[in-house]
Design brief:
Blueprint lengths: L19 H28 L1 H4 L6 H17 L1 H14 L2 H20 L4 H4 L2 H31 L5 H26 L4 H8 L1 H5 L1 H13 L5 H9 L6 H42 L3 H29 L1 H23 L4 H15 L1 H4 L2 H6 L7 H17 L2 H12 L2 H21 L5 H10 L3
Helix pairs in contact: 1-3, 1-5, 1-7, 1-8, 1-11, 1-13, 3-7, 3-20, 4-5, 4-7, 4-19, 5-7, 5-11, 7-8, 7-19, 8-14, 13-14, 13-15, 13-16, 13-19, 13-20, 13-21, 14-15, 14-16, 14-22, 15-16, 15-21, 20-21
Length: 445
Amino acid sequence: MSASPQTGTLDAENQPKTNPATVAVASFVGTTVEYYDFFIFGTAAALVFPRLFFPDANPLTGTLLSFATLGVGFLARPLGGVVFGHFGDRVGRKKMLVITLLGMGLATILMGLLPGYATIGIAAPILLTLLRLVQGFMVGGEWGGATLMAVEHAPAGRRGFFGAFPQMGAPAGVALATGAFLIAATLPDEAFLDWGWRVPFLLSALLVGVGLVIRLAVSESPAFQVMEEKDEKVALPIATAFKYHWRPILLIAGTYLSQGVLAYICMSYMVNYGSRVVGVPRVEALIGVLVAAVIATVAYPIFGALSDFWGRKTMYLLGAVLMLLSIFPAYLLINTGYTLLFVLGITLMFGIAMPPAAGVTGPLMSMVFPKEVRYSGASIGYTISQVAGAAFAPMIATAIFGATGSWVFVAIYLTVVCTISVISVLALPRPMGRREAELQRQEVH
């Protein structure tokens, strides 16, 4: 029996060749490394790049230019989603994940070795932007492949739990990146700007090595193996996905919008806002992000497991609503200028409101598509959302605050984004509640 576009069920003959727990852990470790590489740029964009790569600009302009380079990386993500989605549906999920891990690591290491504006002039921000594009291209193919490896190996009725592990890589990557910068940020300003900020980038070499060993030990996705055995692969997966599944692609983009925007607002914009506007010391602002990221990492699999009983769409809707409701209370806590309340504000958005949605992102969004175009469809929907939302969210928030001088207008911007996500998840072509959970348990390999 072939996979159904409506239910995303898998073939009965398609049995996992590797223990699902092993695959889940491998997906978590590999994705953590990739997102560590991608997220350290966000922290550096808030704390280092305005002074090192855009020194001639005033503080506001320098910050805007720095966040613009952060956003540029997202522009390459759809291309990465198309390319890796195509070959992931044609050649295999595992092979693409090895390439994305190596490519991401190389770009990150080169960033750590890149001279600043004072040394090579305009070439410095240009090379920084090019390397960021490479990062974006690689991470555009990472999410879909890692998610499918975990989801397609998982047994029926447990895909929410096992599918949460690659999603955990995002907050875990944030925690690692923030922790690395937290240590570096304790250095005196001169040492931090001279060489301290480079250490987190260069550490990527070690992390990539560990991730590669673990990723190579996992077998190919069983769903892809069945496609090869039965010759079910389509010639142009991306074209097929857009032709027959364009509506789910757009709804996935809208569904993920709030999650992507709030993640980058918390880990990048709020660090800059807290240290420059509110008066929270740089190190303490980073601690806030670190605490929230650790809590989120622990919470993701809990909500993933709950989605196996309550339904993935139901769980995601809960998270989308909580994100919407958390914005103004979080801002009120952050604006007090007290470190503890700043930490609570970041944690409210990133560590409490987001996990119910983020924990089920992978299985919800991938199982909307049949396996023949699953890598392409899920990757494109996800990366479209990143470009439309997360890419320039810190820059937009900085510009809004710079133009109005009021946090309220930034909060309104975030509220609009979250409202779009609530509407989109409601429109996804899946039932809700017990009916959805029942269908999830009926998914067969």
